[in-house]
Structures are given as structure tokens and as C-alpha cells.
Amino acid sequence: MAPRLQVFRSGVSPVRADTPSRPDTLSIVGTEQLSYAAGSTSLEPDGYRRIGKLDGQRLGQLVSVFPELEQWIRPDCLIINAYPAALGLQGFAPLVDTYLHGPTLIRSLRLAAREQRSVIFAAQPLVGANMLIEAIAAGFEFPSRLLWAGGGYYFPRSLEKYMEQLLHSIGCQVRFLHCYGVAEVAHTCFAATERFDDGLPRFRKVVEQLEIEIQSDGCLILRLGDRQTATKERIEAIDNHWRIQNGPDRLSVLVFDELESWGEPEWTCRTGYFGEHQRELQFQLRQGVQPRSNREHRFHIFWDRFGGSIQSKPQWGDRSVKRHTDGQRHRFARVA
Asked: Where do the segments described as Disordered lie (predicted)?
């Protein structure tokens, strides 16, 4: 009988569903927790990280690098994980996994408010914003202080400003912590509380044991113990800080300029997920928002037309939007 084929909506080619024979040497032993890259569409079995003691020490390392965050990163805070992967943050403070479930986020925020706890909110930018906006709209009590640890991809400065104003309007003081890591090595290898003039986070190294190598093309290699990975990001050391820049396959000039041109009207209505049709950007609307043009698509209809999901990273690269910069070198526009 011919092998059964499975087709996935993620855009990968059909794969055989045969069960491979068990290898002679197993790659995982014991009872370790494994974590794959958040939002990846890869279906390969490799590429995971073993979560260990070093991951659980990350919050303490962050306080060492950023002492001003001690008022948020405290044993009496509440950690709310809205990240689509395990981070290994258990053991520092009470932790709630939301599994990206909106009602669970609301319940945990109400719990923090009732017990007067500050919140560490771990979430990627777009899904985190969407969940918080819906939680605020529900009208329940809200904690007075929230540290948003965002990572996975670039956090638009325009979105940061919008969310800061929105949270301030309900009496919540918010700080943003930009995090950079790779699934195969560690989460939050670098972190930033400030930005360079062009909008990119002004990163500092958080994991002391991390080894950094810059290749001849400026791309980054990270090593931590026996873990190593090469990334497509370009890195530059500037006055004890690190400037990490996505390549055009991750963040195109077109998308960057579009996102950073948005203000309250756009972010109130749009999620930040993009599609492309007839060489024009298409926008996903938040739930309940009606389209005002043929380039805007209702929340669930957008997924049907352009693919993806709330668990996936946005497709912001040149290849995804099919727009290029006419042979120009990849650049970032300056943001006023």
C-alpha cells in the first residue's frame, strides 16, 4: 500500500507519514523539558532546546544587568506567560501559563490586581497586544504595574507607544523589556529597555556565559556550552551595547516603514499581521472591527485568505510581501 501523504496549511511541501525506525543512539535522555522555536513553521524534529537551570536563572540575571527593574522582577510578582513556547521561568515567582487563551489572561490579571502584585508579562508583540487590548475591553480590574517582556521579532516602536498610552489610561504603569534569543541556545540572551535613534533596541548581553562571534558578513553566531547556532541577524557592538538588525527576509523596509507610520487609529483597528495581494499590503483587523477599504480584512477571514495563525510570527520579510528595495542594501528608516 502506498504511503499516506499529509498536506499542511503552513506552506511546506507534502511529507510522507511513514514512521521512521528508532535510531541506535537517542538524542534526548532523562526527563528534560524540550522547547521548540516559538512561531516556527518548521516540521523538522531537531532544533529544540533543553530547558535547564540556566533558564530559571534568567530573571535574576536581568536584575543584575538592569537594577532598575527590581521593582517589577520580584519574588512577590506574578509571571504571566503568553508566549507560544516554554521559557523555563518556573521557580522565581508564581507563574501562570495562559496557553494564549484570552479568558485565562483575564483571570490571571485579576488575580494579580486582587493581590496587589506586579506582573511580568511574557508575550510576543502582536499577540500580546491583541490579548491585552481584549482584556482591557472586558472591563475587569487590572494590575497597577506590568513589565512586558517581548521577543520573537521586532517590537514596533509605534505599537509600544500605543500600548503605553492605553495601559496608562487605565492606571497601569508599564515598562517594556525587549528580549532577543534563539530557541537552540537560550531565551533572552540579550535584553534592552532603551532604543537607538533608528528605533532598534539598545541590547545588553544578559547571559554571562554566552559567547558571541561576528562573521565576516556581520551575521551572528551564538554559543552557550555545547549549544551553537548561526543566525541571519547582523550585530554590531556600540558603546557596551549591541545593535541587532533583522535581515530583509525577516523585516523588509516596506513593512518597517508602514508599521512605524501607524498611530492610535491604525493600532486600535489593526493587529499588525500583513498579507500581500496584487503587490499591495493587506491588513488584518482586530475582532469586531469592520473593513474600511478592500485592503483590510476581518480577523478570521484574514487567516483564511493569507494563512498563518495567532501562534505564528508575522510574515514581514521581503519574500512574504513580495516587495523589494530595487537592489538597495537593506536599511532601517529613522523614526521620529
From this structure: 314-336
Domain boundaries, given as residue ranges, for the chain: 53-208, 253-321
Q: How are beta strands 15-16 and 33-35 bridged, if at all? A: unpaired
Please name the residues in contact with 264: beta carbons below 8 A apart, sequence gap of 6 or more.
Answer: 162, 165
In contact, 233 and 244? CB cutoff 8 Å:
yes
Cell for 183? 530557541
CATH topology of domain 53-208: Rossmann fold (3.40.50)
Residue range 249-273, pLDDT digits in tens? 889 999 999 999 999 999 999 999 9
* b (16+ CB within 10 A) / e for 58-97: bbebbeeebeebeebbeeebbbbbbbbbbbbbbebbbbbb
Residue 143 φ/ψ, nearest 5 degrees: -65, 155
Single-letter amino acid, residue 89: L
Pairing outcome for strands 145-150 and 173-182: parallel
pTM for the whole structure: 0.84
Please give the Cα distance from 89 to 299 (Å, whole number): 32
Q: Which three cell numbers stand for residue 39?
A: 512561531
Q: How far apart are CA 144 and CA 257, in angstroms?
A: 33
The reported pLDDT for the residue numbered 11 is 46
